[in-house]
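Memo to structure team: turn this sequence into structure tokens by end of day. - J.P.
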Amino acid sequence: MTKSFFTSDHHFGHKNIIDFESRPFSHGEEMTKSMIESWNSAVGKEDKVFHLGDFSFLNKEKTADIVTRLNGYKFLILGNHDRGRSRSWWLDVGFDEVSEHPIIYNQFFFLSHEPMYMNKHMPYVNVHGHIHGQKYEGLNYFNVCVEHWNYTPITFETIRDLVVPNEEQG
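Reply from structure team:
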């Protein structure tokens, strides 16, 4: 059975992110190798991964090399650092689908790069990235930045189980 995974903010090729976010890597190559291994340890070839932005700072050839090494059907929602490149650039490097805008998943989850405005009366959950190690309070937000999840994509079931009480999952 295929699974759906969510992740964001890998920042491949951005060596300063190691210091900015206190990532546990000594250099960019170690970070890249470790994050590819973490991705592939969780994601199967037939699984679907929603990457919620800020994927790579590398050139087209190096980015394509990383994308081809990652398991799964890869769907990218462009982040603020991805927008300098066209949608077709991201498709060319190997993403299966690319969206310039947030999307709705499973009629309940807003997938976006940056957190969206949500108030406590809205019955939805915003699955997002962008804010790295920070976290918004409340059950309306779910941060899938790699810093929160040991640099590994997380399953839809993990998100659902953490934000939707068991009696409501029915």
